[in-house]
Amino acid sequence: MISRCKLIGLLIICLTLPTHGQFWKSSLTESQNWQREAIASRGSGICYKTQIAQTLNPDLRQRTISYCCDGYLNRGSSRVLKCEPICQEDCTNGVCLEPNVCECAPGYYRTEAHCRKYED
Questions:
Q1: CA distance to 1, 17, 25, 45, per residue, from 20 (Å)
Q2: With contact defined as beta carbons under 8 Å apart, do 69 and 46 qualify?
């Protein structure tokens, strides 16, 4: 709503004009929405370790190093880690949520190491 206000002495008078909201329909399919939510909910796959470095300042000797945990592959760079889980079995029509854990998309089920479509 759009409001127009006028100050008259110490009295404020506001007129409210009706407006029409704009709504956007998502162009993503149910499967694409599921995939986005599944990927967003999985863990980061980033592990940390403390490493001792040779420095003149003793306060700066301990450093925390980040790296991809076992079972994850870095799809980012050395500065920006984007660790993605690795599924040894085929995860087509699904999402690899953690190492060797594949979740099938809606309308698919897991059998014989594949996500297969439900038949009507």
A1: 8, 10, 16, 45
A2: yes
Q: Which of 29, 111, 95 is nearest to 119 (CA)?
A: 111
Stated pTM of the model: 0.65
SS3 88: coil
**Secondary structure class of 65 (helix, strand, coil):** strand
Q: What are the tens digits of pLDDT across the range 14-44?
A: 555 555 555 566 677 888 888 899 999 988 9
| Residues 22, 34 contacting (CB under 8 angstroms) | no
Give tens-digit pLDDT for 84-111: 999 999 999 999 999 999 999 999 999 9
Rounded Cα distance between 83 and 72, Å, is 6
Q: How far apart, in whole angstroms, are the C-alpha atoms of residue 115 and residue 10?
A: 69
Contact 99, 70 (CB under 8 A): yes
